[in-house]
TrEMBL record:
Organism listed in the record: Seonamhaeicola marinus
EC id: 3.2.2.31
GO MF entry, a single one: purine-specific mismatch base pair DNA N-glycosylase activity
Cross-referenced InterPro entries: A/G_AdeGlyc_MutY, DNA_glycosylase, HhH-GPD_domain, HhH_base_excis_C, HhH_motif, MIG/MutY, MutY_C, NUDIX_hydrolase-like_dom_sf
Cofactor remark: Binds 1 [4Fe-4S] cluster.
Catalytic activity: Hydrolyzes free adenine bases from 7,8-dihydro-8-oxoguanine:adenine mismatched double-stranded DNA, leaving an apurinic site
NCBIfam families with a match to the protein in the record: mutY
One GO process term, biological-process aspect: mismatch repair
Protein name listed in UniProt: Adenine DNA glycosylase
Amino acid sequence: MRFSKTLTNWYSVNKRELPWRQTIDPYTIWLSEIILQQTQVKQGLPYYYSFLDEFPSVHHLAEADEEKVLKLWQGLGYYSRARNLHGTAKYIVNELNAEFPNTYKGLLKLKGVGDYTASAIASICFNEPAAVVDGNVYRVLSRYFGIDTPINSTKGIKEFKALAQELIDKEMPGEHNQAIMEFGAIQCKPKNPDCNICPFNDSCIAFSEHRITELPVKLKKLKVKKRYFNFLVLLSEDFNTVLEQREGKGIWQNLYQFPLIETESEMDIEEFRAKIKDNELLNESRYRLSLYNEKSIIHKLSHQHLYTKFWILNIDEIKTKSIPVNNIKNYPVPILIGNFIDTFRFK
């Protein structure tokens, strides 16, 4: 109880004024939590405002086209979040009469909602004592209690969840959860926390044993895979180009991209010219090939790095489905493609 009391006292003085802290509306809280998965507050805040402006209720979100949702999400990454957000909104409206489940177990049944998000919504909106455990919480608990169990191990996940549940203030679970997350975000930071002004510095094991930099412990990640992407940017004399929608369950599902050729390694212009010689997109048309970026753009995802080149093909005529260059910004694209579109001069 002392732990929670100290935490919430600190929170009352030091918390940031964030818009989702002014409400207990489950739609608003759910939206903020999905946006902030894998995303820092500074980056996610403009998206939060944009989504609420465009979709002020779960009804508005459910009725939207997926492309519109993906376009608004563009730049946040992990696009499965946006697809799950949209699908779950439809489910809530069509199957649950637009009413969010009001328990942790009920919320867990929603697509895209895991233990952390269900705990956050249940505690903040419905006052259920369900403890949140995210990266900030792992860090606070591992340091304060001196726990060196890896936080990304099966044992660690269970151990920290049980501890967090034991510590939660059952009278004010929402306040407690927000306090411990905020404490990890701005006080018990990953690097260089100011332990001298920490309210727990008289009882924190990591501080007393000089182990702040050692905790939390995390198992090494899987080896990152390298992939080599070559995008064909076709530009016709009548100012058209080609975008294709990605399908399947891989990265960027349902987003648009320039025609892609994936190779085993990087290619120079002569190697690539030979590679595309019989490509059906070119269809015996006359074209001029050039390379936009001599050095590959490295786009880092969680388990893979994409070494990317954009190949410009000025072509006399595009003999497949094409779009006017002026319309290219209407399509939802990965940030890698979006950055290219913003910097390349289409003419």
